[in-house]
Amino acid sequence: MAMTPRRSSEELEETHEINVTPFIDVMLVLLIIFMVAAPLATVDVAVDLPASTAQRQARPDRPIFLMIKADRTLALGDALVSVEALPGALELASAGDKDQRVFLRADKTVDYDTLIQAMNVLRDAGYLKIALVGLDRGSAP
Question: Which residues does 103 contact at the CB level (< 8 Å), separation at least 6?
Fold first, then answer.
């Protein structure tokens, strides 16, 4: 006489399905983390960088050009100016209008640190509208 095992009503049946709820929870948490972290990864320096293929913008009547020469000297318009005298010279050139855009030109041999230092001086002086000037793609050699 062979005995067959009896199933008790308390035994749970085995299921072959994956519970995806924890995976969805993890994905939502990661999404929220990236949504919060992405704006923090942006740069704090306000700089207008036009693309080389952008259409030309209207030039102001009296633009303010700050040039950084290859020997790291600064020139505001045609006059040489020291880093210490730059805020005062900008005040005279802009007639006190700190909302006026400053066009920053730099020689291609100028290192990035020198360029950022010049931008920091402009920002500390209150000039937040800075435009970097470069050659058009069509006129580059």
Answer: 63, 64, 65, 66, 131, 133
